[in-house]
Amino acid sequence: GIQVEQSPPDLILQEGANSTLRCNFSDSVNNLQWFHQNPWGQLINLFYIPSGTKQNGRLSATTVATERYSLLYISSSQTTDSGVYFCAVGGNQGGKLIFGQGTELSVKP
Amino acid sequence: NAGVTQTPKFQVLKTGQSMTLQCAQDMNHEYMSWYRQDPGMGLRLIHYSVGAGITDQGEVPNGYNVSRSTTEDFPLRLLSAAPSQTSVYFCASSHQTSRDREYEQYFGPGTRLTVT
Q: Above 80 in pLDDT, residue B103?
């Protein structure tokens, strides 16, 4: 099956710093999503991005499907950005996502 | 829309007990899924459904049963709980985006289950 690897596994930032999280996947995919799991355990949809680039405020994401990776950029980080960021990919059938192990981000004031 | 709802939020079971985790969605999504999340790990797919009356196994199906009698509901049954099933369980639903074969998933708030 498809393998998903995220890097780095954890990251500590000072408030205001920028960061880039990476997601590599082992096969072609039709679906790729980035999620933020907050300290209360909620999974929040950040981006649905099987290809291309999207931006939402301080966050942006780019997926290069032909090279099998995706990047999540966080600019001017805030303490509320802390939590775990997951990349998840799927094939051409709905209902099935394969998750990476996540990147745990801690933003210090 | 309430989105994806799950009940209960927390549950403690004794080994061997049975229970059903409830999941409902009001977005008329055809696809629904159950995942489990263990400490320090990503989510793993237990079972999924592509429509009412149709279910299939995911990565870790053993010890769990599902059924899908309506589009809205997708309950997960633990027939005889074991300590290895202590986990956080997430239900999700998805729909096809405007592009062919692309599906965006939405997750419920989770159920934290402890089996003693």
A: no
